[in-house]
């Protein structure tokens, strides 16, 4: 329980809203019944709050009201957006402002599906509020996606009611403190039963909110294990990004992005495209940063996180923040959304760690259980070589030192081409490490510029990232960083 405030029940929250004569709006709920508005009817005094409650449960009725969904999916972001837009528009059209000078209008909407009878599909839903915090001002908006993990339909319906009530209450009473708003959504809910994997706050009340930080808070606070945001910094729901895609991921610190990172993704992408079960036009590339990596120097430094995010977003990349220390957990997550062939680009030094049995002592089946999860999926490890700085030995799939006890397992995976080499790597960049580049940036040593691509050099200098405080210009590159990065990756992939 949060010790800084008294946590009200869903009924108490609904009653407080009902007794506020300035709050007035519409509830539109699709799919799982009118579970949220029911909280307000039961609390009492709802006539002063609810202008309309609607449940367009039938698809034909829903299409007639909000329009058809091109992909045939009704529990989706686009359906929620249409619901909020129309319902809020109708409030403003039908309620004359001169008759309601002090009213703060709102539209609450959700579209939810609960677990099916055979329990073969999980419940999940989209929730949103479009609302005014002052009469007559432009509305703000909070949207979220939640996975409902209870095994019973009635429990999921109850959770839907509480979750929606918490969201509406938070919008009106915690909008000045977005992090408190986020935490309050879990009031009276078990985090192990409800997973919020996407949230977005927009509008005049949230002009100072960086939604990427909200994504980070979701993972940091244990509300979800992974979040995704786009190059323009918008939070995305995993299913919308990964559904039926050939997923290619690269994990790293990206502190900063170096020439070796670009070579890894370019050559790895080129190799992945050649795979027989990969559609080159259906690949989703993800740059993954783990929570463990963000905590490498203690607690999470949010500015350091934003510095990394700024670079990756500026060069046009989709970013995944996860709490998956183990790769098999990451692959399980991907498998929720796609059964197509996926790939992970990995350095040989990291591969050695994956074959270390100490990381799997918490599993009853040990390393075999973890590898069963990894390679029962259609997964390829794209191995990027690593050069030992002392012996100058190059580690590839043939020379990477694996413990003799696990060598038969390793040989089986390489023989069956589950682990494949990236052979056309750039040998000139193998000695570049992000840690050394970061150290040079902070110390004022300009040699760091030779360790990063020109477009990254440009971003670091323009935005003064990672403690950079120099005044000398970048290397004369005026091209948009995202365009330059895309061109560089394609050129490296074709070289």
Index terms:
globular, 8-stranded mixed sheet, Rossmann fold, 495 residues, alpha/beta, Maf protein, single chain, 2 domains
**Which range best describes the helical content: under 10%, 10-25%, 25-40%, 40-55%, 55-70% or over 70%?**
25-40%
How far apart are the termini? 56 Å
Strand order of the largest sheet: 8-7-11-10-9-12-13-16
Question: What structural category do the secondary elements indicate?
Answer: alpha/beta
State the low-pLDDT regions, or none: none
What is the C-level CATH assignment of the largest domain?
Answer: Alpha Beta
- Total helices: the number is 18
Brief summary:
The chain contains 18 helices and 16 strands. By secondary structure, it is α/β, with parallel strands linked by helices.
Would you write up a description of this structure?
This protein has 495 residues and is of the alpha/beta class. It folds into 2 domains: 10-209, CinA-like (Maf protein, Alpha-Beta Complex), CATH 3.90.950.20; 241-429, 3-Layer(aba) Sandwich (Rossmann fold). It contains 18 helices and 16 strands. It has helices at 10-18, 35-43, 59-66, 77-94, 153-173, 178-184, 211-220, 238-242, 259-273, 291-294, 302-314, 327-335, 348-354, 366-376, 407-415, 434-443, 454-463, 481-494, and strands spanning 23-30, 50-54, 104-113, 123-131, 140-148, 194-202, 226-229, 235-236, 246-251, 283-290, 319-322, 342-347, 379-384, 386-387, 394-395, 419-421. The strands form 3 sheets. The chain has an 8-stranded mixed beta sheet, with helices on both faces. It starts with 9 loop residues before the first helix and ends with a helix.
